[in-house]
What we know:
Layout: H1 2-18, H2 29-52, H3 57-87, E1 91-92, H4 102-107, E2 112-114, E3 139-146, E4 149-153, H5 157-163, H6 170-193, H7 199-213, H8 237-258, E5 264-266, E6 269-271, H9 274-289, H10 291-296, H11 303-317, H12 327-353, H13 363-380, H14 387-397, H15 417-448, H16 451-454, H17 458-482, H18 513-547, H19 553-569, H20 574-588, H21 596-624, H22 634-643, H23 647-660, E7 664-666, E8 673-675, H24 700-705, H25 712-736, E9 748-752, E10 757-766, E11 769-776, H26 783-793, H27 816-823, E12 827-845, H28 846-849, H29 853-873, H30 877-881, H31 884-890, H32 922-938, H33 951-970, H34 978-989, H35 1008-1028, H36 1038-1051, E13 1052-1054, H37 1060-1067, E14 1072-1081, E15 1084-1104, H38 1106-1122, H39 1141-1146, E16 1157-1158, E17 1162-1165, H40 1170-1176, H41 1182-1204, H42 1214-1218, E18 1220-1223, E19 1244-1246, H43 1254-1257, E20 1277-1280, H44 1295-1300, H45 1302-1311, E21 1318-1321, E22 1326-1329, E23 1350-1352, H46 1359-1375
Helix pairs in contact: 2-7, 3-6, 6-7, 6-8, 8-9, 11-12, 12-13, 12-19, 13-15, 13-19, 14-15, 17-18, 17-20, 18-19, 19-21, 20-21, 21-23, 29-32, 29-33, 29-35, 32-33, 33-34
Keywords: Membrane, Transmembrane, Transmembrane helix
Subcellular location: Membrane
Domain Pecanex C-terminal: 947-1171
Amino acid sequence: MGSQALQILRQGVWASLTGGWYVDPHQSTFSNCFHLYLWIFLLAFPFLLYMALPPSLVVAGVYSAVVAVFFTAIKVVNYRLHAMFDLGEIVEKKQASLTAEAPRTEEGEEGSGFDLDHESLQESQENTLMIEEKAKPKQYYRFWVLPGKWLRVRYDRLALLALLDRNRRVGENVFAVVLASLVAFLGFLLLLQGFFRDIWVFQFCLVIASCQYSLLKSVQPDAASPMHGHNWIIVYSRPVYFCLCCVMIWIFDLSGRSGSLQPFSLYGIIIFSAQFLLCVRDVLIVFALCFPVIFLFGLLPQVNTFVMCLLEQIDMHIFGGSATTSPLSSLYSLIRSVLVAALLYGFCLGAINAPWGDAHVPVLFSVFCGLLLALSYHLSRQSSDPTILWSLVRSKLFPELENRNPEEPPVEIKDPLPDKLRNSVKEILHSDLVICPLMAVITFAISASTVFIALQPALSVVLYILAGVVGFITHYLLPQLRKQLPWFCLAHPLLRSKEYSQFEVRDAAQLMWFEKLYAWLQCVEKYFIYPAVVLNSLTTEARTVGQNHKDRALFISVAGMKLLRSSFCTPSQQYVTLCFTTLFFHYDYPHFSETFLIDYYFMSILFSKMWDLLYKLRFVLTYIAPWQITWGSAFHAFAQPFAVPHSAVLFVQAVFSAIFSTPLNPVLGSAVFVTSYTRPVKFWERDYNTKRVDHSNTRLATQLDRNPGADDNNLNSIFYEHLTRSLQHSLCGDLLLGRWGNYSTGDCFILASDYLNALVHIIEIGNGLVTFQLRGLEFRGTYCQQREVEAITEGVEEDEGCCCCEPGHLPHMLSFNAAFGQRWLAWEVAATKYVLEGYSISDNNAASMLQVFDLRKILITYYVKSIIYYVSRSSKLEEWLTNETIQEALRPCLGSNYVDSDPTFNLNIDEDYDHRASGITPSSFCMVYLDWIQYCNSRRQTPVTCERDSPLVNLCFGLCILGRRALGTASHSMSASLEPFLYGLHALFKGDFRITSPRDEWVFADMDLLNRVVAPGVRMSLKLHQDHFTSPDEYEDPMVLFDAITANEEKMLISHEGDPVWRSAILANMPSLLALRHIMDDGSDEYKIIMLNKRFLSFRVIKVNRECVRGLWAGQQQELVFLRNRNPERGSIQNAKQALRNMINSSCDQPIGYPIYVSPLTTSYAGEHSQLRSVWGGPVSPHNIYTWLISSWDRLQKGCGAGCNSGGNIEDSDCGGGSTSISTNPAVHTTQSTPASSLPQPHITTVQPSMGLLSSLQRTSSIQGLLGQQLSSSQLSFSSSVAPPPLPGPERFCPASLLENSGHRAGQRAGLGPGSGLHYESHFSKWSFSGRKGFNGPAATEGEGAPLQTIRTQVRRPSIVVQFFKKIQKYRYSLC
């Protein structure tokens, strides 16, 4: 412990203060002396120049040139030495002492060498390039100084790395030299300006030396480094920040002294005045002098993180953008916003310069408003990450590049996600192509109508009240009523989903009325109320500016774009900002108000910071509350009382961290909090994603011997990957339906189920899109994780405590203790029954299923039968039967006395074992399996001869013997024992067939015999063995067994989990999967049969305070990377139920945390959610508009023809039978994983007319009757079908088919029975409906699942049918 503390003080604290220099006792004297003299030179040289020479730019230039030459020499030598280690050859020394001529003489080389060993330099180690050694080195490198001149270098690479940092590329070395020169020039320039006096000159020279020294030997690890080991980016942090700071000091000083900037006042604060600029300059000077302390506490991030955070904050708070996912995406988003603002600025400037009348709005301003709304809407719909958009463009313009990805191995099942994302982006672009011009035109018309001028000031008040009321109902009242514990007082939600009371969810989530209400209120709020508020304030502001100040055009453009984009993307917090702005500046302090647009703009920025401050204070108070503090170590108990007197400092830190978006992290998990460096919403600098270990990325020898991917965590990570795909499909739509409650950028949620526990980090929120990252925790977590999982899954409804007693509680209310405890948690339960599509996992111990010999005999029997099945089903069977090599090798098996007496065959496990012959004979084989061979052959399209001595039977016998011998070989010829048997079975299951017997080498004539017959036979036998336990005698019937194997082939994937096909099948949503898993963990050696079935899973959604997550993540990074705490049982990861400390810390990127899966940043689109589409409708794309116009024109033609011409056919009219159908808004959404073939198809029942109508039926079009689906009666409505189905042929109506198919008639009677809701008696008697409002009538409830049958018939205008459809048409028009 003491040595670790000293190491932290040396390499952490002292090195951070000096820029990287410290004395390392583990390094050589030469290395420590070199570092010391180098640092003294960098410190003393500028100080002596400033003190000894008169201040002038010439001195600054000389100083910069000397530094440049010095750094160039060091970097060149260092670069060439590393190149020598990479490419040079090691020369062995052949004599005890070599002279300069010896190498050339002995080795016959040209040039002269210089021996720089200990003897040639009188053992003066300080003047050599060699590491200290007592013994003479026996090898050296040649370092070429000049052509023909070289030096012997006995330094090794590790010693050189300890001496100087390595720059791998030439550009890095050049950049380091340029930075060192800039630091010298800018720093000395500030000294010449006289900003520093007395001791501060020495302090500033110390800062210069630390910045330059870090370019040679940096602090590793740095307090702001996000990774273990050497971080080459952090090397440039100090010089870059120093240069920026010096440039800003010089600019502010120059601006303050010249007075060129025009000051202006904002809320009583004069900005850009001379005093203001000089004050900022002084703050920057103090900031520069505090560099050593700032970098000691890690308050400044590495350069790329700083650039990303800066661009992200500017885009979010200035232009209204969303969070970004990388430095490139942040740059892309900012450039996009600046270009749009520049375009809008031109129109706004022209509109402001135009004359404004009392009741007149310039046309150019109306154009500006239309463009502003359309472009803001389009920007809000686009993701900040351009990779998907570029992928779409590349797929259209350069399709040949899509197939060139050598890193991805070829798999049988294609990953559907890339095409799905591209289709979503394409759908958004097509929709915006129509919606944006439409919005621009409508906005232009509204703005030109002078409604925002004529109705003032009443319109503003109405809009503010409307926005406040709708926002309060949408974002406060409805989410509170849907919470698990509304207001932390009620014990149950007041608005419950249909799945709330279900013990086990079997279907997708049902769409409830309050979800529709929530979605529509959001739609009204986003697309009507807030655009009206912003346009109203823009008109008022532009009118005022046009009369007084004409220099606010840029601000109007930027403010309008920011407010509109914010209302489109995150409307949940807008109503609070709007209400506060209105009340504060209109009623409380109107004399502080500038204009409403300025007030609203700056209050939106202020409130985003105030929300962060509120979350930070909640986290701190919850974490250090004395009645629930959990001390994980002795340090926690020691730090708790010392944190109390520093509460004021803690509050100041919270304000500081809220302003600069930095986490507030507990030191070592204790009650002492410090501010970390600023981080983006994404938080983690590295793009760490879990790389699954399978057969596609490991060597074959590794797969066969050690199988590195066999641990539980690697194999279980695929389920979190599938969960990510499910969330990608439904998350955005579910958020818009309010199923996760209120949400905002950066929020964190925990999804908890029986075995899946994942943290979902929402990063970017757009208008119809959400970017998130999922972090999956271990299935079998630690003790601390289990305690926290219990805390979030247990209910508090049964708590009856009140302080120290238990008086109980009111019905459906929480007790006092429960209500008080829920308020002091950093998390809350948002939903208890959130439904997602996933896999139910069942694992059975293979040892218990194969313990006795009888069960192993059943497995071997199914193994043999499966081999026979795959032989008979193979398309290459005829080729195998005519192959001379195979037949020649199997010819001895036709002998009457042939016996295969391999030791692997056993009477206990082989059903066809002949104990008299002590082996397996063809006759014993045929006695057991001949019937099965003949049946499988009979199911072939072209059966072959399968008599007892036929080639087919002989081939099956040879393959079955080969398969069982391979199993015995893999079991080390110990199949009678359970453990070897399981080992061999698992080896064959994963495809490790080792043919060792010469009698089986014939199989190499065609490897498909192993790949397509034996290998699938092993896997299928395991599935059949599983089914044997549910119905033991079912598979004795050959037909049942054959159909079962065929069904398993079609609907199930049986594969080893290391096969890439396993992952592809799960991601492609295969209905069922089966695998045999070998678990070697913590000394256990088990074999488990893993069975996966696709179903709907229920999760508890836990919303966690996002500042709690960011703070704990930052604390773990500081503790493990900078403070080097490697204790696996450290106090900072012990369970703390009030903050979920263990679960949050476990979800950090490896190796800081230990999640089993970290997903890439994934974007979910609202257009993929079918339930949301049923509420809001599909995208308004040109193709959809064209389809709708064509179908509407067809219906109009048919309707006019039937209504205006009494002789027209009734089927030509829209309501009379053209294509009338029963449609519905689906109550259940189909997820991305449900194939079209698996959806419930409508049952169609054809009503057969009499023979007298046959001739007329052949000449008329059919009445497309009442197309029904399995829908509830509350959702039935009449609508017109866009594309009617094809007409049935005349043979459909032949009475003979009706007489021959009695089953079909029974289906008709079942479909037209009383329970179907539709009655039809004979052919022309009567039709009746069970209710007036819908086919099922008012008596039918939403829960009825009886399918509504479709009836198709054809008539020649019989009067009763004409009257019936005329009544339907009249009834439909009355409804309209």
